[in-house]
Amino acid sequence: MSSSSYVAIVGGMNVDISGTSDSKIILGDSNPGKVTLSLGGVGRNIAENLILLGKSCRMVTVLGDDLHAETIRADCRRIGLDLSACETIPGAKSSTYLCINDINSDLMAAVADMSICEMITPHFLKKHLDVLNGAEFVIVDANIPPASAAFLADWCESPLIADTVSIKKASRLSPCLWRLLAIKPNRPEAELLTGVPIRGTQGLDDAASELLNAGVRNVFISLGSLGVYYADQTHRGIQSCIPGSLVNTNGCGDSFLAAASLSLMSGMSIAEAALLGQASASICAEAESAVNPALNMRVLRKRAGLDSNLSS
Predict the structure, then answer these.
(1) Are 208 and 177 in contact, with CB atoms under 8 Å apart?
(2) Are 189 and 163 in contact (CB under 8 A)?
């Protein structure tokens, strides 16, 4: 890959507010614990992980004109994330994500106020088509409207990789499945996209086949503590989780997709991409924030049990 290349990210950037209880969650009551504030959003988190792994990234997105936007812009300057294709929407609120974790740091519930992402319209994307088409590859998250996913499928010339974000938003990506190099849903999201019931590991092959038949070239289905199922037209398997010190699971999927995408684009097999993705998720889980600043290519390959050279 050329050192001058970049990845374009289409999706959300927001302030993350995370609360983790000191003991078992009692619903309907105030639970003592720790509250942290960090910068997040699926698209932004993927971008920061890619930057830590040595890639330049450009966000193609929108922000409000509020205090949160200034905080996000300052943080993007700090990490080196290019916002030249980011527009400010007058009078709009920037995205905010609020999550509650149990004592084991597993997500209990979350509220995402990301309505501003509805402004990532086909008209907006058309204005930045040169950035999208000049990218080595484009990662899109499901915070964008379905019409915008369709626009990317029709007009974006760069390889497309997608993150489904949530059960409520996964179907927004349906119009662009036929153009995707890769997609990463969890089990419920894969069920929604394919109509195939998945119980444990039963149904994974059929669900993956539906996505592959729709045009997706590489499928990763997150299985939580069981690891990740991967499939392309010739290889299928399950990559187990890689041990690490669990602090916070928020952002692990974003970290997985960053490393897996970079691996695929480097010519690695889907099994190798799944391995490096799980290694990246393991490193992410060791930080309180949604992105672990300790991530780099050397640390990633060591966690995966590979040598220090990305090419294989």
Answers:
(1) no
(2) no
Edge-to-edge strand ranges of the sheet holding 107-113 = 33-40, 14-21, 95-101, 107-113
Are 7 and 135 contacting, i.e. CB atoms less than 8 angstroms apart?
Answer: yes
Instruction: Please list the alpha-helical segments (H only) found in the chain.
Output: 42-52, 67-79, 122-127, 129-133, 146-155, 187-194, 204-213, 252-265, 270-284, 297-304
d(CA 212, CA 167): 20
Determine the residue type at 212. L
pTM: 0.89
- Cβ-contact 28, 239 below 8 angstroms: no
- Asked if residue 15 lies in contact with residue 94, where contact means CB atoms within 8 angstroms, the answer is yes
Cα dihedral 263→267→272→276 (10° resolution): -10
DSSP string, 228-281: EEEE-SS-EEEEPPPP---S--TTHHHHHHHHHHHHHHTT--HHHHHHHHHHHH
Residues 28, 31, 36, 41, CA torsion sign: negative
Tens digit of each residue's pLDDT (9 = 90 or more) over 142-172: 999 999 999 999 999 999 999 999 999 999 9
Instruction: Answer whether 173's CB lies under 8 Å from 193's CB.
Output: yes
Chain segment 69-122, per-residue pLDDT in tens: 999 999 999 999 999 999 999 999 999 888 898 988 788 888 888 899 999 999
Which of the 8 DSSP states describes residue 309? -
Return the axis-axis angle of helices 297-304 and 270-284, rounded to nearest 10°. Answer: 110
| Structure tokens that stand for 52 in this block | 């830590």
